[in-house]
Design a protein that fits this description.
490 residues, globular, 4-stranded mixed β-sheet, transmembrane, single chain
């Protein structure tokens, strides 16, 4: 009987459609984010939340600094305002648990999009390996800050550009509107605009001479539309130059995430590089020249500044998926063909959705307590005498966000772009124990207290200064208070 359905052998591989593979990948990423909340370890989360609260309270984006005492009133635009409002809304709705769920949803969307694209070109096993490498690269940056909320946009944008080149056309013009969200959520949108230029150049070089005019017109129209959309921010066209201004700040070299990659100890990034080299060298892989230059350019950016690792890993995996998939093609029937009936897919989707809702309910029902980290001096702030909260403080750079969240105006915080090179470099000199600069700053600001890391050189200086006395210390932070009588005698 030709129409009879043969029984499935117990030894036959289970076939799962691409959509289910993407759904399962998204759930795995969401579950990890919810169950193992690692994104609350960064102090800058504090000032992002307070910025979101300020925007909601005033129904406007701040254009001058409302948080510090040292440069209060200085021009500053909260260029990531959309992410900050989303972060504050989730925090207001569910506390730290709500913020974790928000990051978890963004991470799930990122992995769903990446998994679906990887499975178009790579086997199931290879796709899983690629997703594990992606997770390894993202883990150091899995913190509650705006960049995590725009990563799905970066992935979707890259996939759309790859699809446009695959079909030898320009991206659909309405897609340029995505820049309205991206540009108001995080500064990485400039890289998205650069990607348009990269793929437009590839399209131009691949086009026949008779078609190059059309390529220039269509890709040019899309690029101009995306740029115009990216300028619709509180900063307007000035926002387009902000990432370049930030990248040129000399003070960034003093900040961990802006420092060059460090290979003195084995890291996840090194594991990714070694695995990538192993795959690329084991079999002949042909990468289009422009895309090869793109990958090398992103590698250069990452070696300069570790914070660019997420861009290299995220975009690099998508760009290399096709050539890697072709080079490592082998018989792999699992995760490839659709299930016999659509009902099975609906059941899987229902079960995964139910599990995700259950995990969300668990995370909200079991409140998360933000623990002590090197950037979050929870115990020290809890022991701070109330009278000192309203006196001027000289604080560790990484503690600034936590101080703002606690309602304390800091001397400095993570907004290096606002403080500028001169102020920030002077601060780091003081933090390294420059006594002359410290005395000059204290003479200007008349600090009432300091909060610094235990091993700060300035802590040792203050311990031997009769004008200061240590009033609290733990393994994260030390608080010194100015001696009023000594100051009065002077």
């Amino acid at each position: 009987m030709p129409n009879a359905q043969l029984p499935i052998s117990p030894d036959a591989p289970i076939s799962i459609p691409y959509s289910t593979f993407a759904l399962l990948s998204a759930f795995a990423a969401f579950a990890f984010t919810i169950i193992v909340p690692t994104m609350l370890r960064d102090g800058d989360t504090g000032w992002h939340l307070v910025a979101g609260a300020w925007i909601v309270a005033h129904a406007a984006v701040p254009i001058t600094d409302p948080f510090s005492f040292s440069v209060v009133g200085r021009p500053w635009v909260a260029h990531e305002w959309l992410s900050e409002v989303a972060m504050y809304a989730s925090y207001r709705a569910g506390g730290w648990s709500g913020l974790i769920v928000l990051v978890g949803v963004a991470t799930a969307a990122l992995f769903a999009l990446a998994a679906a694209e990887l499975r178009r070109w790579m086997s199931a096993r290879a796709s899983i390996i690629a997703l594990l490498l992606l997770a390894t690269g993202l883990l150091p940056s899995l913190i509650a800050r705006p960049h995590m909320l725009v990563l799905p946009i970066l992935v979707g944008w890259t996939i759309a550009l790859l699809r446009a080149r695959e079909h030898d056309r320009a991206p659909p013009l309405p897609m340029a509107a995505a820049m309205l969200i991206w540009a108001n959520a995080h500064g990485s949108y400039v890289f998205g605009l650069a990607l348009v230029g990269v793929f437009a150049l590839e399209a131009l070089l691949a086009a026949k001479p008779s078609n190059r005019r059309t390529v220039i017109q269509r890709w040019g129209l899309f690029g101009i539309s995306a740029t115009i959309a990216a300028a619709v921010t509180p900063w307007g066209v000035h926002g387009l130059t902000f990432p370049f201004y930030l990248n040129d700040l000399k003070a960034l070299g003093q900040i961990n995430e802006w420092q060059p990659s460090d290979f003195r100890t084995f890291s996840g990034f090194e594991a990714i590089l070694l695995a990538s080299l192993a795959f690329l060298l084991a079999r002949p892989i042909r990468i289009p020249p422009i895309r090869l230059l793109l990958v090398l350019g992103m590698l250069h950016m990452t070696l300069q500044h570790t914070r660019h690792e997420i861009i290299l890993v995220t975009v690099g995996i998508l760009v290399l998926a096709k050539p890697l998939g072709r080079a490592w093609r082998y018989r792999d029937t699992s995760f490839s063909n659709p299930l016999p009936h659509g009902s099975e897919r609906l059941i899987v989707a229902f079960l995964v959705s139910a599990l995700a809702i259950s995990l969300t309910a668990y995370r909200v029902a079991v409140p998360v307590v933000r623990t002590e980290t090197k950037g979050i001096p929870v115990r020290a702030l809890a022991h701070l005498p109330p009278a000192l909260r309203y006196q001027r403080v000289f604080n560790e750079y990484g503690f600034g966000g936590s101080l703002i969240l606690a309602g304390i105006r800091p001397y400095i915080d993570g907004r290096t772009d606002m403080y500028g090179d001169a102020f920030t470099l002077d601060y780091f000199s003081i933090a390294r124990g420059d006594a002359d600069r410290w005395h000059a700053a204290n003479a200007k600001w008349h600090f009432g207290w300091t909060i610094l890391p235990l091993r700060s050189p300035l802590v040792r200086l203050l311990d031997h200064d009769p004008a200061w006395r240590r009033i609290y210390a733990d393994d994260t932070a030390v608080i010194h208070q100015a001696v009023p009588t000594y100051r009065a005698n002077r």
